């Protein structure tokens, strides 16, 4: 099994108007045959890839394989749900291989917006499957090494049967921008400010947090984190050596004592989550910080489809108090960059790996179709586009068995 994540504020059924705060895919298809589950591989530490595992592991009870940073994040989550020391977490390194039941799995480093994002190759009796996880081609990342095409070009000689590939940005032409470009944009935006600056971003985007730490240092500001998930993620980054020693953080309780021009607060709630810090700041009910007229609130995160109403309501609250806001659509500067590949990047990776079959994943149906179109233009012989509930079969013949599995969502308590 590859990854085990959550999503937020989604309906449990497609036609259900009632949403749950935290949901995950119904694991019944796997738990009904868990004796066949040899292990779970977690590709990286984003919530939509690891967040459900602490809640579901008792249903699986198998080893978990991942890299050091993700393991550190996972251990913290397991501790919160009373599973500390109970889950066998096997830490792997780049280019390392493990035999997991019938599968021989190898980890390949690539670039994304979190430390240690990994693709995997899965050697099976039916052939080799290459699973990208989440990725982009970033030649100048803030954390880790730049994208190495040689690692993936070598797969072209390895007879890859199927490439399971991220489709998130498959409808966007061109190439995603680098995290370094985002750092430059945030520096240019924050440097001339005379009041408090608050930045809302995803807590798991450690590269963005490091960029903001550098911006604080270069602009004479003190940076503090407000939000448990941010503090946990930076703690994991420090524990695994991904937080630079020369980027200090102050306790959020000290922000109120600073001149406003020295304040840089990084907070949770960029998607308008009702209990997160940005909502409390907008309502003037945040214990550690008050924002006032002419202070600036930056949304350094994408607007996830479905969250538009909540985010725009949040923006309206700030503007009603004469607090300025800045979203990506308000500026030509890349104050947020995606961690996922656009069409040019998809084409490059398909051309490097040269699989026999493309299996687009991670996206709505139109994104999957867009990914398949790029694969076809990149001379991939066949594209398999399915939907939730379809079973992909690679032997004895390659096909999609439509709607073979009953799917759905379940709610999780946090």
Give an overview of the whole structure.
With 414 residues, this protein is of the alpha/beta class. The strands form 5 sheets. A 7-stranded mixed β-sheet has the order 6-7-8-9-10-16-17. A 5-stranded parallel β-sheet has the order 12-13-11-14-15, with helices on both faces. The protein has a 3-stranded antiparallel β-sheet with strand order 1-2-20, with no helix packed on it. It is 28% helix and 21% strand. It contains 12 helices and 20 strands. It is globular. A hairpin with a 7-residue loop joins strand 1 (7-11) and strand 2 (19-25). The chain folds into 2 domains: 7-174 and 339-411, Metallo-beta-lactamase, Chain A (4-Layer Sandwich); 179-330, Metallo-hydrolase/oxidoreductase (Rossmann fold, 3-Layer(aba) Sandwich). It starts with 6 loop residues before the first strand and ends with a strand. It has helices at residues 28-31, 47-50, 53-60, 68-80, 149-153, 179-190, 206-219, 228-239, 277-282, 308-320, 343-353, 365-377, and strands at residues 7-11, 19-25, 40-41, 64-66, 89-91, 97-100, 103-109, 118-124, 127-131, 160-166, 197-200, 222-226, 263-267, 296-299, 324-326, 357-361, 382-383, 391-393, 399-401, 409-411. The mean pLDDT is 95. The longest helix is centred in the middle third of the chain and has 14 residues, at 206-219. Its EC number is 3.1.-.-. Residues 16-175 form the Metallo-beta-lactamase domain. GO terms for molecular function: exonuclease activity; metal ion binding; RNA binding. It is an enzyme of class 3 (hydrolase). This is Putative ribonuclease J.
């Amino acid at each position: 099994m590859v990854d085990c994540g959550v999503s937020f504020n989604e309906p449990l059924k497609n036609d259900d108007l009632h949403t749950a705060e935290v949901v995950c895919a119904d694991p019944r298809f796997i738990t009904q045959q868990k004796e066949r589950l040899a292990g779970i591989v977690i590709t990286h530490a984003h919530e939509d890839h690891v967040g459900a595992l602490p809640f579901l592991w008792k249903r699986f009870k198998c080893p978990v394989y991942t890299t050091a940073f993700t393991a550190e994040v996972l251990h913290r989550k397991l501790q919160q749900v009373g599973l500390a020391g109970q889950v066998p977490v096997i830490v792997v390194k780049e280019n390392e291989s493990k035999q997991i039941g019938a599968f021989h799995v190898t980890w390949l480093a690539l670039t994304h917006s979190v430390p240690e994002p990994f693709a995997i190759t899965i050697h099976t009796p039916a052939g080799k499957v290459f699973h990208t996880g989440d990725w982009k081609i970033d030649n100048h990342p803030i954390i880790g090494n730049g994208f190495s095409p040689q690692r993936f070009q070598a797969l072209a000689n390895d007879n890859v049967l199927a490439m399971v590939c991220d489709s998130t940005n498959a409808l966007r032409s061109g190439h995603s921008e680098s995290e370094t470009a985002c750092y430059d944009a945030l520096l240019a935006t924050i440097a001339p400010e005379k009041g408090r600056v608050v930045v809302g971003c995803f807590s798991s985007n450690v590269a963005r947090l490091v960029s903001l730490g550098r911006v604080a240092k270069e602009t004479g500001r003190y940076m503090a984190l407000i939000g448990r998930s941010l503090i946990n993620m930076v703690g994991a980054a420090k524990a695994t050596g991904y937080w630079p020693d020369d980027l200090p953080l102050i306790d959020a309780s000290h922000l109120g004592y600073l001149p406003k021009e020295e304040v840089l607060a990084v907070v949770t709630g960029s998607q308008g989550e009702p209990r997160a810090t940005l909502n409390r700041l907008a309502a003037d009910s945040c214990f550690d910080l008050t924002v006032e007229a002419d202070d600036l609130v930056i949304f350094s995160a994408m607007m996830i489809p479905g969250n538009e109403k909540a985010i725009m309501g949040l923006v309206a609250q700030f503007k009603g108090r004469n607090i300025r806001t800045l979203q990506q659509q308000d500026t030509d500067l890349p104050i947020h960059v995606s961690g996922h590949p656009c069409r040019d990047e998809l084409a490059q990776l398909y051309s490097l790996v040269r699989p026999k079959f493309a299996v687009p994943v991670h996206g709505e149906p139109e994104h999957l179709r867009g990914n398949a179109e790029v694969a076809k233009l990149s001379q991939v012989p066949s594209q398999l586009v399915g939907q939730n509930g379809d079973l992909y079969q690679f032997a004895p013949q390659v096909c999609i068995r439509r709607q073979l599995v009953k799917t759905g969502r379940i709610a999780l308590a946090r």
